[in-house]
Amino acid sequence: MPTEDSSMSGISRRSFLKTTAAGVAFAGSSLGFAGLGFAQGTTLRAYGVTTAQMDDPSLITKATGIKLEFTPTDADIGVFMRDALANNIGETHDIMIFDGGTQDILGPRGFYAEIDEKNPALELWDRTPDFWKKSDISVFKGKSYGVPILGNCDAFAYFPDAIGANPNGLDQISYSVLYEDDRTRGRVALDRVFSQSLACMANFLKVNGRLKIEDPANLTPEQAKAVVDYAVERKKAGTFRTVHNSFEEQMQLIQNREVDVLECWEPAVKEAEKTMKNKAPVYSYAVEGGKKWGHGAYIPKQALDRGNGDAIYKVLNYFLGGEFRAYQARDRSYAGPNMNLGVEYAEKAGWSADQIEALRATDKKISRKMANPNAFWAKPTAPNADAMEQEWQRFLSA
Amino acid sequence: MTAALAISSSPRRRWRLPGTATGWFTGWFLVIWIGVVVLPLLIISAFSFFSMRQYQIVYIPTLDTWNSLVETGRWVVVLRTIRFAVSVTFLEILVAFPFALWLAKGCRSDAVRAGVITLLTIPFFIDASSRIIVWRSILGTNGVINNLLVGSGIIDKPLTWLLYSDFSVSFGMFGSYFPTAVFPIFLTLSLIDDDLIKASSDLGGSRLQTLRFVILPLAMPGIVGGIVFTFVPLMAAWIEPQLLGGSQVNLLGQSIQSALTNLNYPIAAALSTVVIAVLVLMLAMLVVSLRGRFKISSLFQSLDS
């Protein structure tokens, strides 16, 4: 795993490769292979979470002329950081897509390049709202390292009949239905990922004035201990049925109605609606807000050294545009910057009125969730992540 | 020749190159084994004495990781894992022995025997997660068993302990590791000469006496093999507790996985060291408990006898 020093040596190695590559390119062009550089520029390789992947990648090629080959990874921060830090994935990939926050570590250490906000290909940057482009998805210490491409505010799903809520799903529901409600005792599922479950529980305790917590996503060891003490107490009271580990498990818990309330991703509810129709659970507007998160697209420094900058910025601009926005909202219920461009795209592309209305509804829904002052931004690379993980194990072991 | 090839002239101990093919093979095996297995294990253990800061290892020796195993309750997970591994192994052997005895000596049809062995093997053609996750639809509160029990009026409300409990994890483990318990016992029982069993009967031995004084001692290599091949993977099992245990059963495999997810190599290394230490300790206890009654080296003798 590289240290500051070793990353410096990594740059030296890259410099060597760059010099060598430049020499080879010069020799190649001298010999008449002038098209080689162009061919390399039109095929880019992205590495990142699958949620950012287009179901039909040919749409990107049609819109930009660039073929984007996608190497998927899951939402496992450890795997992503290992690939970035130890496996130097920037040597082979041009764009990295992951939860906002990785730039806090990979930016200052020289793995990510700063975003050139004035790059001519990034023409939608200026009209992108600050809410997104100045958010924790993109910025660390005043420097922009990423282009925000999608986001949501995660909370939980519930079956309205189990808690006597309005089935239209517009009620604001407190997280207490997960932790302290006798109606759901023993029929609650939490996420095994501590940056979700522990942070949301901390936020619940913070918002309700039970613990003094500055940032639920980055708990100090003492705060983490206090939150886990509460979690253990609730576990011993028989509140939780299970903790789940994957999207498939979320789906199974919903489809089998194994629980009444669960922390999950919104696409799980969207999938359930396809088969369960009006018996599907509702994704909540939480009183305590929930966890705001977003995926950013980042540029590994080596990709610029390879001369792929123009093509990369063209793809990043596509991520800010209407087509990407419309498909992400339609297929996954995710919003992102410039949602109005998504609606414009859908209208021009002849989508049905229902589909266009659904895009507007997605925009409205996510704007409402994001606007909740109690919501907090996720920090997958929180400085206190080790202490939080250790405490979370105490909950799991109890 | 061996004297001529001596590579050390120490008066006390003389290191010599092997003089036979077996000697050479053993030497090479040891070199490769140490390089491929022992050395990585030592490196893993060494990592447990470092710490992590912001996804980077701090190469300053410390006992912080080991202290944190106690403070965060991960030691409880170690004890729980041992409890599961021991109890499930015990149950496996308890059921596997009579089953293997029937298969080896009781079942007179080769076709039935082949069929049973095939049936034991077939489920393992599919991936473990897919095989285990099916049980959630069967054992869940709205699963097949609860629907049958409630539908037939035997119970009023679904049994919640069928899933996400010690029971469901033990059940899943039992199914997963049954063949590894059965096959070694079946093999050694198959090698017992039927004339020995007949002789015991001819000499007036009851069935129980034949079982105790003839079959069991001869089957001991298979039983020990079954224990080893079941207990060792059970110590690292994580699919069954993950899919059938929910938040109620957290075992070592999951704890290691969680540490790796957070790129916390020292914790994962410490837990892996604990697993290895527990395995060595338990196997040593097994050897000591069998001393005087059974030679571990005889595990492999019955195959060439």
Describe this structure in words.
- The complex is a heterodimer of chains A (398) and B (305).
- With 398 residues, chain A is of the alpha/beta class.
- Chain A folds into 2 domains: 4-152 and 295-351, 3-Layer(aba) Sandwich (D-Maltodextrin-Binding Protein, domain 2), CATH 3.40.190.10; 156-288 and 374-397, 3-Layer(aba) Sandwich (D-Maltodextrin-Binding Protein, domain 2).
- Chain A is built from 18 helices and 15 strands.
- Chain A has helices at residues 4-30, 35-42, 58-64, 77-85, 103-106, 130-133, 160-163, 176-179, 194-207, 221-236, 247-255, 266-276, 301-305, 309-319, 322-332, 339-348, 353-371, 385-397; strands at 43-49, 67-73, 95-99, 139-140, 143-144, 146-154, 156-158, 172-173, 188-191, 240-244, 261-263, 282-283, 285-286, 291-298, 376-377.
- In chain A, strands 1, 2, 3, 6, 14 and 15 form a 6-stranded mixed sheet that branches. In chain A, strands 10-9-11-7-12 form a 5-stranded mixed sheet, with helices on both faces.
- In chain A, strand 1, helix 3 and strand 2 (67-73) form a beta-alpha-beta unit.
- In chain A, helix 10 runs parallel beside helix 18 (385-397).
- The two termini of chain A are 33 Å apart.
- Chain B has 305 residues and is mainly alpha-helical.
- Chain B has a single domain (37-304), classed as MetI-like (MetI-like fold).
- Helix content of chain B is 69%, strand content 2%.
- A two-stranded antiparallel ribbon of chain B has the order 1-2.
- The radius of gyration of chain B is 25 Å and the shape is flat.
- Chain B starts with 20 loop residues before the first helix and ends with a helix.
- Residues 1-9 of chain B have low confidence and may be disordered.
- Classes of the chains: A alpha/beta (398), B mainly alpha (305).
- Chain A binds chain B through residues 1-3, 76-79, 81-82, 85, 105, 186, 189-190, 192-193, 235, 240-243, 245, 248-249, 252, 256-258, 381, 383, 385-386, 389-394, 396-398, and chain B through 52-57, 68, 71-74, 76-77, 80, 133, 136-137, 140-143, 160, 163-164, 242-243, 246-248, 250, 254-255, 258-264, 267.
